[in-house]
């Protein structure tokens, strides 16, 4: 579980995060949504320690990040998996080497133990026979699976995904969403996803945090987002006619 308490972050005197508090539960896919510029990336980067908020607390399973020693911070980093926007694979390494990379950096496992773990996670993301390929030889969807395999290879407690569906076709995006949700549930990971994909919101939004201009404008589940009357949410999520219609059908079904 990650607890966020009243975090504030400014750049050059301009406040970007204006006192955000929330809780992300273990075993759940937690989504952050909001307009471009609302502060989603700054928020995510603050959670993983790339930005230091001026105020507020971030607790990882009860441990306040601020109070950790440098060594404890290093240990915490090994418990965090990250799926970067655009996958961020190393072009000069094979898929197998890419996935092994975090273990080579941060673990004392033997070569054969590492290879066994690579085989296991590549199998888990349904990538068999791809070990010796290079990223350039893989499709966008395959690259994303490799990025997920690399993110979970160290058995993380926390998984952060920045726009995991960007650049993917809708069908592949659903496959990736489902994979992230299954892995989150199976390994009881606290997963936080930055997304613009309203389909993900509807499908895997077990908890949704809606940011607007650096504040939490709403939070709830993908069931609650259908029924909320919060104007900021409805203006944003139901700006497309398609999602407006889906909402109408859902609300009618609830009535009937
Ligand atoms: N390193 C930085 N220095 C100064 N300002 C920054 C920095 N990073 C972000 N900002 C500002 O913070 C605001 C929020 O940016 P952020 O990238 O978090 O938005 P976002 O919601 O992730 O947008 P998008 O959906 O387009 O990725 C923007 O006004 C941006 O210019």
TrEMBL record:
UniProt signal peptide: none
Record has ATP-binding as a keyword: yes
Transmembrane segments: none
Family annotation (SUPFAM superfamilies): P-loop containing nucleoside triphosphate hydrolases
Pfam families according to UniProt: ABC_tran (PF00005)
SMART domains recorded: AAA (SM00382)
InterPro entries: AAA+_ATPase, ABC_transporter-like_ATP-bd, P-loop_NTPase
The ABC transporter domain, residue ranges: 2-238
Keywords: ATP-binding, Nucleotide-binding, Transport
PANTHER family: INTERMEMBRANE PHOSPHOLIPID TRANSPORT SYSTEM ATP-BINDING PROTEIN MLAF, PROTEIN TRIGALACTOSYLDIACYLGLYCEROL 3, CHLOROPLASTIC
Protein name: Putative ribonucleotide transport ATP-binding protein mkl
């Amino acid at each position: 579980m990650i607890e966020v308490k009243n975090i504030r972050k400014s750049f050059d005197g301009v406040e970007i995060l204006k006192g955000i508090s929330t809780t992300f539960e273990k075993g759940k896919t937690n989504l952050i949504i909001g307009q471009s510029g609302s502060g989603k990336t700054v928020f995510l980067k603050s959670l993983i320690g790339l930005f230091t908020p001026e105020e507020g607390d971030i607790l990882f399973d009860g441990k306040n990040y601020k109070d950790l020693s440098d060594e404890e911070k290093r240990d915490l980093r090994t418990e965090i998996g990250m799926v970067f926007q655009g996958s961020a694979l190393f072009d000069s390494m094979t898929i197998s080497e890419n996935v092994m990379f975090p273990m080579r950096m941060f673990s004392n496992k033997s070569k054969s133990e590492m290879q066994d773990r690579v085989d296991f996670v590549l199998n888990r993301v349904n990538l068999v026979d791809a070990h010796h390929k290079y990223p350039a030889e893989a499709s966008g969807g395959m690259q994303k699976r490799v990025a997920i395999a690399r993110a979970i290879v160290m058995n993380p407690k926390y998984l952060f995904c920045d726009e995991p569906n960007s650049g993917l076709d809708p069908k592949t995006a659903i496959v990736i969403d489902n994979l992230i949700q299954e892995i989150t549930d199976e390994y009881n990971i606290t997963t936080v996803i930055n997304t613009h994909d309203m389909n993900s919101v509807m499908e895997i939004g077990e908890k949704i945090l809606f940011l607007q201009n650096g504040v939490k404008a709403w939070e709830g589940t993908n069931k609650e987002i259908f029924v909320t009357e919060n104007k900021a949410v409805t203006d944003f999520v139901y700006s497309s006619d398609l999602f407006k219609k889906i909402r109408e059908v859902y609300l009618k079904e609830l009535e009937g």
